[in-house]
Structure formats: structure tokens, C-alpha cells
Amino acid sequence: MDKDLLLKEISEKIREIRRKLNLKEVKVDIVDVETVLEGEDRILYIYVLTRSDKSTVIGPGGWVVGKLREYLKDRFSGNLKILVDTYVDRVILRKKIERALSILRGIGLDRGESILVLVQCSYDLGVLDFLRRHFKVYVVILDIGSVVLPSKNRKLIEDYLTRYNIPYKFISPMELRGDRIGEVLDNYPCNLCNEIVRDYLIEECRERGIRYLINNHIAEKLEKFKDVYIINFLKLYPLKRDVLRRNYPYLKCPLMIQALKRDRNVKIKAIETIVSEVYEGLMEPGIGAEVIMEIDKKR
Q1: With b meaning 16 or more CB within 10 Å and e meaning fewer, what string describes 86-116?
Q2: 87-117, pLDDT tens digit by residue?
Q3: Residue 227 · residue 97 · CB < 8 Å
Q4: CA neighbours within 13 Å on the CB side: how many for 220?
């Protein structure tokens, strides 16, 4: 498919879609497109000049890019997904990826290595979907009560793991309930889970001969405990948060929801994280604004 013709066709189709949706007619500068096959997915990257152009192509609630996908989906092999980014963010993103890969190579983590992944809440399923394409994964889920692992999340996790035939186990070192829940809510909830689960996960790694543990809820990008590397992959590798939210279940933690309602400092920290992700180009501003409003409603 000729790239120049595809660029022209996409530009014209976006204008047509916006007209049909009664959206303002805006000139969009699309500077490049490329397609990449990732497993069963065909990713169409659309690169625009500015973040304003990016918002124009995506449209309110993703309606414009969604209708563009419907129009183009039969033209490509695989399950078509469209990602829109600015050209500058593309360059910055690739530099971040190179830096992350350099760090991973530096600790000996190469494609095909065995890793243990904690899947619990937030973006964990989306991150796992990326990791399973590059590494041999074994999953552990912490079950210390429905305030940390509600039945809805448990089903979403088990359904995903079963679909892709990923080995896993639940660990239940304790049950969180009653007065202890109140104590936890006086602190940042992730700290409790990390404190409870670390020794169990390290022991699980040792028993399985695995040197790499993925825990996306620790404060640092990379830690080493005894002979196991603990990696916060979300902090290390620049996965787009809005893409993860759009394409995978976002696992809400009841404990975190209650902490946001109860503790202003927890709410401020959560909002600061979203602002930082938007600033770094990891989340589209409109999506970031929606997430911040959702956080602020928790009172």
C-alpha cells in the first residue's frame, strides 16, 4: 500500500468522520504512518504534528479514531488497532524505549527469559499482555480478601490467564478484614500489599529458578533483593497509559478507592501521577482530565 496515498486517504476520512459527527472542521497535519504486526494485532501508527492534532484525530471519547478503524479494518491483516501520537513524542518515546532496553540488558533480562509477574490491580493485565509476547511468564495473584481482590477482578484475571494458557497461582498469606482495614487506609494501600507479598514472591522466584520479578506497584523502577531483581515495568518502560486503559480491563482496587475517599494526600498523589503521565506523553490530555475528574469525585 502506497504510504502517500494512505496518508491522503486517512486525512480525508478524518475530515469526513468529523463532519458526520458534527464536530468542528479543523486542519490536521499527519506527518507519517507505519504499521507493525504484534502477535494477532496489526498496529497502525498515525503520527501528527502537534498534540492538538492528536486530539482532533482521536476525537471526543475516541469516536473519530474508532470510526476510522471501522473504515480501515478490512484493509489490513490481523486485528487492527490504531495508535495516534505526535512526531516529537514518537522520537522521545523511542529514546525512552532504548534506555529501558539498555537497563534490562544490563541485568541480563533478554527476550525469552523466565519472569514472575504479580497481577493484582490497575494496569497489570495490560502490562502482562505486553510481557507475555516477549518473555516466558508465570503469574502470581495476591488474595488477602475482597478489599484487595474483588470477585470481578479475580474473574477478569483468571479469564485472561486461561485464554492465553499462562500458568499462575494465588497466594493467601493472610486475610485483611475488620480493624486492620482501617489501619491500612491510614497509609498508602500499595505499601501494605508490597510489604505482605515481597517475601512470598521472592521465595516463589527462588523455587522456580527465576531471577526477575515484575511488580508494577513498588516505588522504584528497579530494586535487587538478595539474588532477585524486582522491576516496576510501568515506571521503567514507556507503555502508553491511555492505550492500556482502552484495550485492557483496568482493575480497580476497592482498598485504593476507599483510601482516595478518606485521605487527601493519597488523592493528591494519584492526581500528580496522572499529571506526570500526561506531561511525559504517556496519556492523552483528554483521557488524563477524565481520570482526574473520576479521582476527584471520590469523597
Answers
A1: bbebbeebeebeeebeeebeeeebeeeeebb
A2: 888 888 889 999 999 999 999 999 999 999 9
A3: no
A4: 6
- pLDDT > 90: percent of the chain: 52
Write out the three cell numbers for 181. 482495614
- C-alpha cell, 82: 490504531
CA atoms within 13 A of residue 272's CA, in its CB half-sphere: 6
Give the CATH class of 96-251: alpha beta
Q: What DSSP string runs through 74-112? A: GGSSSEEEEEEEEHHHHHHHHHHHHHHHHHHHHTT--TT
Q: What is the pTM of this model?
A: 0.79
Q: What is the pLDDT at residue 176?
A: 60
Parse the chain into domains and list their residue ranges.
3-85, 96-251
Confidence of residue 78 (pLDDT cuts 50, 70, 90): confident
Give me the architecture of the 3-85 domain, per CATH: 2-Layer Sandwich (3.30)
CA 241 to chain CA mean position, Å: 5
Contact 34/73 with Cβ under 8 angstroms?
A: no
Q: What angle do CA 276, 279, 285 make, to 5 degrees?
A: 105
